[in-house]
Amino acid sequence: MNRRSQRTPIATALIALFAAPAASLAQQAPAPAAAPVQQAAAPATTLQEVVVKGAASRDDFNAVRNSISKLPEDLRDVPQSVTVVNRAVMDSQGVSSLADALRNVPGITIGGAEGGQIGNNINLNGFSARTDIYLDGFRDRGQYYRDTFALDSVEVLMGPSSMLFGRGSTGGVINQVSKKPSMKAATEVTGSVTTNGLVRATADVNTPTGDTSAFRIAAMAQDGKPSTRDEMTVQDFGIAPSWKLGIGTPTEITLSALLQHNHDMPDYGLPPLNGHPVNVDRNTFYGNTDDRTNQDIASLNATIDHKFNPNVRLRNQTQYNWVQTDARQTAPQSVGAIVNGVYSPLTTSSLPLSQLFVRQQSHDRKIRDYSIYNQTDLTVKFDTGSVKHTVLAGAEFGHDGYNNQGITRAAASGPCSGFVACVPVIDPPYVDSPASAVTGRGNVAGGSANTIGVYANDTIEFTKQWKAVAGLRYDYFNASVTNSISQPRSLQQSVNFTSVRLGGIWQPTEAQSYYLSYGTSFNPSLEQLTNTTGTVTSQQQLEPEKNKSYELGGKWDLMNGDLSLTSAIFQITKDNARSQNTDGTYTLAGKIRVNGFRAGATGHITSRWQVFAGYTYLDAEIVDGVAAGTQGKVPGNTPKHTATAWTSYAVTPEWEVGGGAFYMSQRYANNTNTTQVGGFVRWDGMVAYHQPKYDVRLNLFNIFDKKYYDALIQSDGGRSVPGTGRTAMLSFSYRM
């Protein structure tokens, strides 16, 4: 039985499970209320004035609360920098992918697929956040490209946070917040089309199914070209059903799922030459027409939230993730010259580009990634004299699994023997893989891990002005990896680590909050269930990376809370840091330190004018490098300056205009700093027409057609993926 036939019953059962409530809506919908019976008029009574604070407008950029259950809801009580990119910001900018949403967070850069990995590879504050992506508070470690159709917001918590999340989180944590059912019936459908030819449709339907229950389903389908790089195509679809029971009662149960399929063209960008991406047209593509990345994603979540009383709350959550990838990918491995039938790779050359060639290498693989986690949190509020405590205690149990079947395509003879082919640097042919590139099975890498974590955190309120946070977490991480061909053939690791979180908060007024915090985290060498230490000769090389952070910052709410300002200085230090070598393996590179500053502004400047802006400065250095040529260098894909600004203005109640810029200074594509990518500013714009039932929006991306490089890939000297050129998108949303 093939894999597809094995998946069909699962997918069918899931769809049937979540379609059942929808099928019975007509039977369960409450009947129209009967006309009220006339009553004698009651004597007039004067009631006490009640002040009701409603929810923020659906178009409001400002978010003052977070959804992470381990943190206080009010962001001013969190002694760390937190950035929330909500639905209003994403809709205003025409965002459809997680990568695009994260461009609003200065200090984040995008990486490409490498090292056996596919999907969203992100750097946060100078450190990889590959395994620090979460979905509704649970680790979302599957290797796939994430869409935003089922998300309400994206939350980014800056700095090491292993006390809250376990292993990882050196630079921070990225939490995707999925859409949840509510008691308000609502339906919204959206269609869009771009000048590149990408057609996209989404739907979001929320319907009460009883007095205390509701069902919601979000769906997405898209087909076409996502960028101005002609060869890039996507064909994706997904659904995200959820059902919530007991809404507004002491016990709430939420069942949710994400089912998604991606059929995309991979992009490995341009190879380096003379210290920069090779100087060719940005639409140049070194892949083949039969390249593709097929992905199937299933994520299931069940949450039980019970409030015994206003001071005691118990929450249990279970999540299962399963991702399968079938990839056929061709990458530019190097630039070189062919002399007398022999290919010689070059890092520098004064030869005309017309005399040079690119050697293609296959990155074909079949990956299966799965995890199951259960987490229980108990929150208790109590007083000891005049001091108030909010204690969070919990436990987490998890299992991860990984399997990667490598596949090779290589010519048996010729100047590029052992590789797919050699193509001209300028105007390479866009054709199927050559028949001379024979397909063979490569190494099978497997891995599994078990995790146990117990933790406790106390938020202490001494007075209204002075608060403190103190927490500890103990983690046990046991992992093993195997290889069918590569060395080492097997490897096992057990790690015990205690993480610390400390913070002090001073709030002299309701509008001001100042804090000082300290946190630690750890990254096991087998964290990604792949061997990231090269050929291991001693257990000492399996030491985990250890991280610590200091942060001093302030948060201010101006204009009655309509505008929020944040600012912080910080230092993050990683010991036993891993560094990628030229052969693709890793070594423990000693120490990396990042000193930084960040500032942000979010919300309304006036009733018509709002802004979402931020800036981050990163002074990053590999202080003590073991890998050759890295000591004293800047970590790859870490710009010194990043800034983003997006603003909109309601000219009339119907018409809105907006725009903004993304700025990034120059950065290096690798840790040896041999390949540099220049800085850039990309300008976007927006015009929208609003009505109670519908919106029409025109988004313009890269208005001035700036040539820039988006994602960077460290391997093979550092490859650089060009960003999209000038593009327009017209979208129409209808609500009922």
TrEMBL record:
Membrane topology: Multi-pass membrane protein
Source taxonomy: Bacteria, Pseudomonadati, Pseudomonadota, Betaproteobacteria, Burkholderiales
Major location category of this protein: membrane
InterPro entries linked: Beta-barrel_TonB, Beta-barrel_TonB_sf, Plug_dom, Plug_dom_sf, TonB-dep_rcpt-like, TonB_sidphr_rcpt
Transport as UniProt keyword: yes
rRNA processing listed as a keyword: no
Positions of the TonB-dependent receptor-like beta-barrel domain: 266-703
UniProt-annotated location(s): Cell outer membrane
Domain TonB-dependent receptor plug, residue spans: 75-173
Record key words, sorted: Cell outer membrane, Membrane, Receptor, Signal, TonB box, Transmembrane, Transmembrane beta strand, Transport
Residues making up the signal peptide according to the UniProt record: 1-26
Cross-referenced CDD domains: ligand_gated_channel
Pfam family, one: TonB_dep_Rec_b-barrel
Highest rank taxon of the organism: Bacteria
Protein name, entry field: TonB-dependent receptor BfrD
Parts forming coiled coils: none
Species this chain originates from: Cupriavidus laharis
Family named by the database record: Belongs to the TonB-dependent receptor family.
